[in-house]
Structure formats: structure tokens, C-alpha cells
Amino acid sequence: MTLFVTIFAMALGFFLMDATAAGRTDNLWWLPPVITTRGQEVDKVFYFIFWLTGAVFVATQFLLIYYCVKYRFNRKRQAVYSHGNNKFEIVWTTIPTLIFFGLFFWSNHLWKEFHQTPPEDAITIEVTAEQYGFNVRYPGPDGKLGAASDVAMSKDNKLGLDANDPAGADDFVTYNDMTIPVGRPIHVLMRSRDVIHAFYVPSFRLYQDMVPGRTIDWVWFVTTETGAYDLACNQLCGAGHYNMKAKISIVSDEEYQEWLKDFLPKPEQPVAMAQPQ
Ligand SMILES: [Cu+2]
């Protein structure tokens, strides 16, 4: 009976895993491909820890089994008292301590690097989360996002935009769709309209909470490959959380310029309506 229940649970697990991983259908047992320069740095730390702890795990389990067998019950053997070995104890305390300090300095160095000011040529995009989706605001041709404040957020002004700021006149907003050019630094400002959401892109190795009342401004990244990737909310933010996701399309610079055209005022069309005489 127990065996049956175990097999059934495993089969159900496989089924559910397959059903929920619509965006990713292969290599589900391992990490998704990494496509940001910072993600590659994160992976180096991950693999270092993975192989080191993996090797220590295998070695200690092997020794455990070996000594269990070697010193198994034997009527002829007499127990001997051993105080231990101070030299060995110093060695096996010092080595892990040095490794831990090394990991601390390594990851702390990366953390500081990830929080550097974004470069001058970065494209600044604002992502405002809400139950249950992501509003993505682009700066338009002037490269500047118009001012916005959380206090001004309302039903009619979802993002709390300041209508008097000329920088905002050419801004445009997409929903659950973020298109960015490959290789360019992308600076993402993160806000939330209601509860805590998250900006989680496994392929970027990037995860940042989006907190109502705050504009998180330290996240920026550079992608290395084109393709479509999932942006998911990773904070249990309500009943529709399971379905809160967006598509990030990473395209070539030419494709990005082409995509932008759909959202910008056409040159042949008058931008403002002519005033009646
Ligand atoms: Cu959410």
C-alpha cells in the first residue's frame, strides 16, 4: 500500500511539474540557461559551492560507511580509549573557516559590484507590479521617464504619473510584455501598486522584491543572448499569484528599434490635433 501511494505521489508530481513548466520543457532537473553577465558570476559561486559541498558529502558518506563496516561488532576486538588528535582538529577547523571567509569576500564583492551605479548608456525602464501583472513603462525618444509618485496612484492614474512633467509626454506603457535589446545595460526601476510582488527572472539569476511605497532603483543587468524568457512574481501576493507572469523578449538592436516604432508617434501624423479656427 505504501509503495502504491509513493508511486502515485511521484507520478502526480511529474504530471504537475510538467503542467506548470510551460515556459521550459527541457532540462527541468537543472538550472535554466544563464543569459546575463551577472548571472554568470552568480553561477560561478553556485557551482563552486555545489561541487565543494558535493565532494565533501560523498567523501564523508564514503568514510562513514567504510568505518561502519571496518569497526562492526567483533567479539575478539577490545575497545580502546582515544583522546583525539589536536593537529587534525586544528587542520579541519582552519580549512573550512578559510573557505567560509573566502566565500564571504567573494559573494560580498559581487554584491557590491551588482549595486554599482548603472552606466550612462543604460536604458531605464520602470516596472510597476500590481495584482496580477506587470506594467512596463518606457521612456520614449527623450530617454527620460516622466515623474511619478505612489501618492498620485488612483484608478484613473494607475502608475501615479505626473501629467505636468514634459519628460513623461512620450512615455509609453506595455502590460506583461518587456522587450529589451541584447547587450545593452538595462536599468529597471521597480514599484508596486498594492502588495509586495517580486521581479524574478531565473535565466537572469535575478530576484528582487517590489515593495509598495518604494522605488527600487539599484537593479541593472546586461543580457548576452536573444530569446524569450519568463518574468515571474515570486511573492505569494494573492489568489491570482499563480498566474502573475510576463514575457521578456530579448531582441537585437535593430529589432528593438523596429518594435519601438509601434509605440512612438508616427512622423507623418501630426502629434497634436489642429485647433479649430
Ligand atoms: Cu505578485
Automatic annotation (TrEMBL):
It is an enzyme of class 7 (translocase). It comes from the Bacteria. It is found in: Cell membrane; Membrane. It catalyses: 4 Fe(II)-[cytochrome c] + O2 + 8 H(+)(in) = 4 Fe(III)-[cytochrome c] + 2 H2O + 4 H(+)(out). Binds a copper A center. The chain crosses the membrane at residues 45-69, 90-111. Belongs to the cytochrome c oxidase subunit 2 family. NCBIfam families: CoxB (TIGR02866). Subunits I and II form the functional core of the enzyme complex. Electrons originating in cytochrome c are transferred via heme a and Cu(A) to the binuclear center formed by heme a3 and Cu(B). This is Cytochrome c oxidase subunit 2. The gene is coxB.
